[in-house]
Write a structure and sequence with these properties.
disordered C terminus; 14 helices; 5-stranded parallel β-sheet; about 450 residues; 2 domains; globular; FAD/NAD(P)-binding domain; alpha/beta; Elongation Factor Tu (Ef-tu), domain 3; 6-stranded antiparallel β-sheet
Length: about 450
């Protein structure tokens, strides 16, 4: 019997492998770490979160909350573990990244239908397969992808935020609170008055940056960052108030020392269940490590800050998906070969999990001899998949799940109620879709090799 191959044990590959295995399919899951490392990963665990530890808002009328509801309805395995290993984060779903990745790794290693192989895949596998090699696809596999697709990859650059020990911050200055006094105060907040903000901005704009590395020089568009994850120095260069209206916005917060709203705020979000480690929200950067330590220790209450991770930058690679993939993430020229994760242009942790689930569903249809069925475009996952498959190729860029991807509502709804209306429509249409197109039963082993 032929095994199904899944390349990459990140969020997308782990979800895809788990979905296939639970359906009774034998899976050979390849992960090149620890034999081959990447500039972003710190461990060899499956589903390691390399940037933020937040999966987004839990609110049912926000895009992330709607996508979470869709993933629950579709039976996402990784979302279940994320909720089981959540840490306090106000209205967001954030996880203890070590506990979460450890739980995913243990589940896959112990699954009777999964063989986790620690080897680099250097060639695109024959179908049936799911390629979820991620934005840091190895050079060898990237070269073979160019051979198979016949087209050049696109590139953009992504950055990581620093992580600090909470005990090293000054509690007389740094205060715990969530915006608008929501919840028990899940964030640490570093308040700045106007002079402190202006001084910080000057030091940031003058700070030393890393020189471009060789792999960065290969892309003539090396200054193109993903808009939702801009390095703070790139954002700051857009204007004196860009940070104050972005990651340093002070709305909904009051400094307990003054009783007034600060001019600007740096928020820190919990990284682990014990609350020992905290990341600087939205403070991804390409400054040198020495410049980062000097700059961030100049912030109020952070003079003695101890950093366990400093910001870094790495190249993210993705396909020209509108020319290559269907709405089920299947390669147009090779039925049974699916792609998932950031390499497709689906951004965000939830989007990556969802893409792995979608690719696995498509492959299960193929294994049963059926045509894969795309999700309704009125669902967020269906809309995100449609963006990946049908956006204009000349301007295609990675995208997170956003309400702007959805078709207009049939009836006019006040702006404040649109999120809830989108959620209700998604819920209804997804329920109808699952009733009309149930997943096929597992393919008998004797027939599976002919899929």
């Amino acid at each position: 019997m032929e095994e199904v191959v899944v390349v990459g044990a990140g969020l997308a590959g782990s979800e895809a492998a788990w979905q296939l295995a639970e359906a009774g399919v034998r899976v050979r899951l390849y992960e090149m770490r620890p034999r081959v490392s990447t500039p972003a990963h710190a461990t060899d665990r499956c589903a390691e979160l390399v940037c933020s530890n937040s999966l987004g808002s839990r609110l049912p009328d926000r895009a992330a909350g709607v996508l979470m509801e869709e993933l629950r309805a579709l039976g996402s395995r990784l979302l279940q573990l994320a909720e089981a290993h959540a840490v306090p984060a106000g209205r967001a779903l954030a996880v203890d990244r070590d506990a979460f990745a450890g739980a995913v790794t243990a589940a896959l290693e112990s699954h009777p239908n999964v063989a986790l192989v620690r080897e680099e895949v250097r060639r695109v596998p024959d179908a049936p397969a799911v390629v979820a090699s991620g934005p840091l696809t190895s050079d060898a596999l990237a070269e073979d992808l160019q051979r198979v697709t016949g087209r050049e990859h696109l590139h953009f650059f992504d950055a990581l935020s620093p992580v600090v020990e909470g005990e090293s911050l000054d509690p007389a200055v740094v205060f715990r609170a969530s915006r608008w006094d929501d919840g028990a105060g899940d964030y640490l907040n570093v308040p700045l008055d106007r002079d402190e903000y202006e001084g910080f901005l000057d030091r940031l704009l003058a700070a030393d940056r890393h020189a471009p590395r060789d792999f960065e020089r290969l892309d003539p568009r090396a200054d193109r960052f993903f808009e939702r994850c801009l390095p703070i120095e790139v954002l700051a260069a857009r204007g004196r108030d860009a940070l104050r209206f972005g990651p340093m916005r002070p709305v909904g917060l009051r400094d307990p020392r003054t009783g007034r709203r600060p001019w600007a705020v740096v928020q820190l979000r919990r990284e682990d269940a014990e609350g020992r480690l905290w990341n600087l929200v939205g403070f991804q950067t390409h400054l040198t490590h020495g410049a980062q330590v000097e700059l961030f220790r100049s912030l109020p209450g952070m003079a003695e800050a101890r950093f366990v991770r400093l910001g870094s930058i790495h190249r993210n690679t993705f396909l020209d998906s509108p020319r290559l993939l269907t709405r089920c993430l299947e390669f147009r020229d090779r039925p049974g070969l699916f792609f998932a994760g950031q390499i497709t242009g689906m951004e965000g942790y939830l989007g990556n999990v969802a893409s792995g689930l979608l690719a696995a569903r498509g492959l299960l249809y193929r294994l049963a001899g059926e045509e894969p069925a795309p999700l309704p475009p009125t669902t967020l996952l269906g809309a995100l998949a449609r963006h990946v498959a049908e956006a204009p190729s000349t301007s295609f860029q990675p995208m997170k799940a956003e309400f702007g991807l959805l078709p207009h509502l049939e009836e006019r709804v006040p702006k404040s109620e649109r999120g809830a209306a989108y959620a209700a429509r998604s819920r209804r249409h997804l329920r109808e879709f699952l009733a009309s197109r149930p997943m096929p039963p597992p393919v008998p082993e004797a027939d599976r090799s002919r899929a």
